[in-house]
């Protein structure tokens, strides 16, 4: 079962529909005990980084980190990916999980913000999540803050600066775009995630 975490800021219905269409058993939940029982965890999210404080106000953050430490496949989507970093300039009082180094920053004034629409992925070889995608696949974004390119980055996009589109480390995956809104490319990514084994 895949647990889709509800902390009050997720694009939950469309994420659930995408996984259900792929034939996965899913549960949208805010209950830590349900998340703990799941075989895989998805943390979606749209909106302001401060919404992630809801994870810390409950035991959800600890449950997510326990799942990650146990090698359970984890996918952060948009705001859920940014939570994997140390934090964001959007809400400096709200810490991230710190699994990846770096702080998320706002797009510069030289580009229109938010970054909304389709953009291509420049992928690195060896990605577990993106292996089924064609080269330079296009995905759908909507975000005003971006994560830096780091060692764990397996795909980048460019909108003014280059930024992390996908990060991967062991069983932890993050995507800045919305796979549930990215057509065949997004469904391919979600299908690959469904097929992953624990690390």
Topology summary:
Blueprint: E1 2-5, H1 12-21, E2 26-29, H2 32-37, E3 40-43, H3 53-57, H4 60-69, E4 74-77, H5 79-82, E5 87-88, E6 103-106, E7 115-120, E8 122-123, E9 138-143, E10 145-146, E11 153-158, E12 162-169, E13 172-175, H6 183-195
Parallel strand pairs: 1-2, 1-3, 3-4, 4-13, 5-6
Antiparallel strand pairs: 6-10, 7-9, 8-11, 11-12, 12-13
Can you characterise this structure?
The protein is of the alpha/beta class and 199 residues long. The chain has one domain (2-195): Rossmann fold (3-Layer(aba) Sandwich). The chain is 24% helix and 28% strand. The protein contains six helices and 13 strands. Strands 2-1-3-4-13-12-11-8 form an eight-stranded mixed beta sheet, sandwiched between helices. A three-stranded mixed beta sheet has the order 5-6-10, with no helix packed on it. It is globular and about 45 Å long.
């Amino acid at each position: 079962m895949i647990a889709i975490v509800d902390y009050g800021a997720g694009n939950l219905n469309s994420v659930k529909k995408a996984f259900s269409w792929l034939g996965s058993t899913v549960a949208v939940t805010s209950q830590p005990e349900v998340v703990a029982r799941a075989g895989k965890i998805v943390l979606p999210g749209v909106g302001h980084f401060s919404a992630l404080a809801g994870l810390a106000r409950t035991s959800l953050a600890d449950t997510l980190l326990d799942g990650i430490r146990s090698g359970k496949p984890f996918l952060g989507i948009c705001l859920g990916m940014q939570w994997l970093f140390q934090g964001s300039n959007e809400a400096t009082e709200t810490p991230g999980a710190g699994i990846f180094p770096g702080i998320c920053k706002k797009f510069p004034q030289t580009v229109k913000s938010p970054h909304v629409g389709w953009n291509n992925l420049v992928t690195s070889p060896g990605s577990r999540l993106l292996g089924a995608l064609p080269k330079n696949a296009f995905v759908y974004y909507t975000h005003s803050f971006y994560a830096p390119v780091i060692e764990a980055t397996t795909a980048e996009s460019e909108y003014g600066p280059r930024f992390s589109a996908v990060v991967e480390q062991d069983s932890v995956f993050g995507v800045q775009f919305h796979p549930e809104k990215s057509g065949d490319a997004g469904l391919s990514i979600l299908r690959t995630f469904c097929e992953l084994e624990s690390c």
